TrEMBL record, chain A:
<dbReference type="InterPro" id="IPR018274">
    <property type="entry name" value="PEP_util_AS"/>
</dbReference>
<comment type="similarity">
    <text>Belongs to the PEP-utilizing enzyme family.</text>
</comment>
<dbReference type="InterPro" id="IPR000121">
    <property type="entry name" value="PEP_util_C"/>
</dbReference>
<keyword id="KW-0418">Kinase</keyword>
<keyword id="KW-0670">Pyruvate</keyword>
<dbReference type="GO" id="GO:0016301">
    <property type="term" value="F:kinase activity"/>
</dbReference>
<keyword id="KW-0813">Transport</keyword>
<dbReference type="InterPro" id="IPR040442">
    <property type="entry name" value="Pyrv_kinase-like_dom_sf"/>
</dbReference>
<keyword id="KW-0479">Metal-binding</keyword>
TrEMBL record, chain B:
<keyword id="KW-0598">Phosphotransferase system</keyword>
<protein>
    <submittedName>
        <fullName>Phosphotransferase</fullName>
    </submittedName>
</protein>
<feature type="domain" description="HPr">
    <location>
        <begin position="1"/>
        <end position="89"/>
    </location>
</feature>
<dbReference type="InterPro" id="IPR050399">
    <property type="entry name" value="HPr"/>
</dbReference>
<dbReference type="GO" id="GO:0016740">
    <property type="term" value="F:transferase activity"/>
</dbReference>
<keyword id="KW-0963">Cytoplasm</keyword>
<dbReference type="InterPro" id="IPR035895">
    <property type="entry name" value="HPr-like_sf"/>
</dbReference>
<dbReference type="GO" id="GO:0005737">
    <property type="term" value="C:cytoplasm"/>
</dbReference>
<dbReference type="GO" id="GO:0009401">
    <property type="term" value="P:phosphoenolpyruvate-dependent sugar phosphotransferase system"/>
</dbReference>
Length: 547, 91
């Protein structure tokens, strides 16, 4: 009997395999009596040795040299004579193996935590080692991402960056999480690795480890207990479709030739080769935060020019939409001293930083202008977090003063979407950041997994706001792009095109599937599907009407 | 007892990679080597956790001690390792 669970698909693709869950930290059992201290110590020692051996095996398998070195350093911490001595003393004092191991690690934990700085950060390593050793003693799987040596589908409540540092894409064929949303770490990781993934899938952790599942990262469907032959046939069909899609190249368009530009989101010149591989028509979002992160001061003019020039040169002859610094909220920058805001997402972020520190913006625009002058790229500049016509007008003036001819604004705030036509008369183009537009339209924090359904890009109210922008673009014959996660959803692409969106910018890996999806529809189809989706009662109904 | 005093040369201190290199070298020594900072209790140089717990930074003076055949040679090479910047050319 198969059982169907439904979540939100965040990275398209169909995979099948046994489901294994991310193992949590084991709880310490109630203390037990120790009769044979020598045997009890041998048990503890063997558990530590198994932890060391397992870390060594993971290090041997790790593709990344840095990851391998970190794992070996962790192994060295567990293979420690002072630690073993501590365990021996505790066992001889009458503690059982799990409690002796817990106590011996705790002694070092206290010293590390008190020392602060680097050592305090290593407390997490000590806790991880302790959890691993206790799991071995209790016969439980070691905490973390399983590495059974064969492909499987990883299930978890949610995934944090620490859980996935050495995730092996050769073994992990797909991801499914109980909570999370389209912009959670799981979704971002899945798209970066090209792993089919479903988030916000209730009930998935009730499935037994090893259950054979068929996961569709496009529709969000997870079928458990499915016949293996049927599942394999389904994945084969899906990979044939994907292969056909990757065979398509050239500019994005519908089957009847209506153009929708397919652009790539990049953070630096490092991402440009991936964009080229996917035949991106340009860059629709060049994020500039990378240059500003993790530093006490602002980057120098020369540094900024060099970083921008690198991307512009690589994209000579094509469009590059560069976004000015989007600091604040989830991306605080030390040199802006933004601490102490009661609600950073509603505080001084994006273009609003220019209210307090206008020179950061003028210096950045000057650097962009200089980098542009030396390359052949078609450079467009845009500001994040614009709410009013006055903000849009002043940004365009600043861009023109710097010598940048094409300037636009991002639509992330409902106020800006509602007045899209006014804004678009003052600027050259609009780019809709759907992640933030969802967050502000639904008053739902992007990091709040429990509200993932509100952040679904298929929410009709969000689509309606996108439609307001698209209509303004059609009336004024100016470009309106989408550069949020919504742009990477192949099923949504025809809907966005039908709403009047003229370019979609996404992670390069997502481009082939979106190109194929557009090529399968006519412009009239797109307009019809857009009308259906906006009129739907909710995101689930909207998806159903369009599929 | 043969003793050497060395100043930690690694930019990140006796942490992370430099600590790993030092501990691995100490484990290979033919004699039992201890390390201490100032008047604090000497700890085994081949214990990663104990060496990390010293919290030695770049410029911290540490004292190495060992006894037995080959102690002088072992201490010389370990002291030299400590004084070297083991982070250099890595990051």
């Amino acid at each position: 009997m198969s059982e169907v669970l439904t979540g939100i698909g965040v990275c398209a693709g169909v995979v099948a395999g046994p489901l294994l869950r991310l193992a949590g930290a084991p709880a310490l059992p109630a203390p037990g009596p120790v009769t044979d201290t020598a045997a009890e110590f041998a048990r503890a020692e063997a558990a530590l040795a198994e932890v060391v051996a397992e870390l060594g095996r993971r290090a041997d398998r790790a593709a990344d040299a840095t990851v391998a070195e970190v794992l070996r350093a962790e192994a060295l911490m567990a293979d420690d004579e002072e630690l073993r001595e501590g365990v021996r003393e505790l066992v001889e004092a009458g503690h059982d193996a799990p409690h002796a191991i817990d106590g011996a690690f705790a002694a070092f934990r206290e010293v590390f935590a008190a020392a602060g700085g680097y050592l305090a950060e290593r407390v997490a390593d000590l806790d991880d080692l302790r959890n691993r050793a206790v799991a071995v003693l209790l016969g439980l799987p070691m905490p973390g991402v399983p590495a059974p040596g064969h492909p499987y589908i990883l299930a978890a409540r949610d995934l944090a960056p620490a859980d996935t540092a050495d995730l092996d894409p050769e073994q992990v064929a797909g991801l499914v999480t109980e909570v999370g949303g389209p912009t959670s770490h799981t979704a971002i990781l899945a798209r970066a690795l090209g792993l089919p993934a479903v988030v916000a899938c209730p009930g998935v952790l009730d499935l037994a480890d090893g259950t054979f599942v068929l996961l569709d990262g496009g529709s969000g469907r997870v079928e458990a207990g499915v016949d293996e032959d049927i599942a394999r046939a389904a994945t084969r069909r899906a990979s044939e479709v994907a292969a056909a899609a990757s065979g398509l190249t050239g500019p994005g368009r519908t089957s009847d030739g209506y153009a929708v530009k397919l652009l790539a989101n990049v953070g630096s010149a490092k991402n440009v080769p991936a964009a080229d591989e996917a035949h991106a028509e340009g860059i629709g979002l060049f994020r500039t935060e990378l240059l500003f992160l993790d530093r006490a001061g602002e980057p120098s003019h020369a540094e900024q020019v060099a970083a921008y020039r690198e991307v512009f040169t690589a994209m000579a002859g094509r469009r590059v939409v560069i976004r000015t610094l989007d600091a604040g909220a989830d991306k605080p920058l030390p040199f802006l001293h933004q601490h102490g805001e009661p609600n950073p997402a509603l505080g001084i972020r994006g273009l609003r930083v220019a209210r307090q520190r206008p020179h950061v913006l003028t210096a950045q625009l000057a650097a962009i202008a200089e980098a542009r002058a030396e390359t052949g790229a078609d450079v467009w500049v845009m500001a994040p977090m614009v709410s009013t016509l006055a903000e849009a007008t002043s940004f365009v003036a600043a861009a023109h003063d710097a010598g940048l001819p094409t300037a636009g604004v991002m639509i992330e705030v409902p106020a800006a979407a509602l007045r899209a036509a006014d804004l678009l008369r003052a600027v050259d183009f609009l780019s809709i950041g759907t992640n933030d537009l969802s967050q502000y339209t639904f008053a739902a924090d992007r990091m709040c997994g429990d509200l993932a359904d509100l952040l679904d890009p298929w929410q009709p109210a969000l689509l309606q706001l996108i439609g307001v922008c698209g209509e303004a673009g059609r009336d004024l014959s100016k470009p309106v792009g989408v550069c949020g996660e919504a742009a990477a959803d192949p099923l949504l692409a025809p809907v966005l095109a039908g709403l009047g969106v003229t370019s979609l910018s996404m992670s390069p890996r997502a481009i082939p599937a979106v190109r194929a999806s557009l090529a399968a529809r006519t412009e009239a189809d797109c307009r019809r599907l857009a009308a259906l989706a906006v009129a739907a009662d909710g995101p689930v109904e909207a998806r159903k009407l369009v599929s | 007892m043969p003793t050497r005093t060395a100043t930690v040369g690694s930019a990140s201190g006796l942490h992370a990679r430099p600590a790993k290199i030092f501990v691995e070298a100490a484990a290979k020594a033919p004699v039992k080597v201890t390390i201490r900072v100032g008047d604090r209790k000497p700890v085994p140089a081949k214990s990663m956790l104990s060496v990390l717990a010293l919290g030695a930074k770049q410029g911290t003076e540490v004292v190495l001690e060992a006894e037995g055949d080959g102690a002088d040679e072992a201490l010389d090479s370990l002291a030299e390792l400590l004084a070297t910047d083991l982070d250099a050319g890595h990051v």
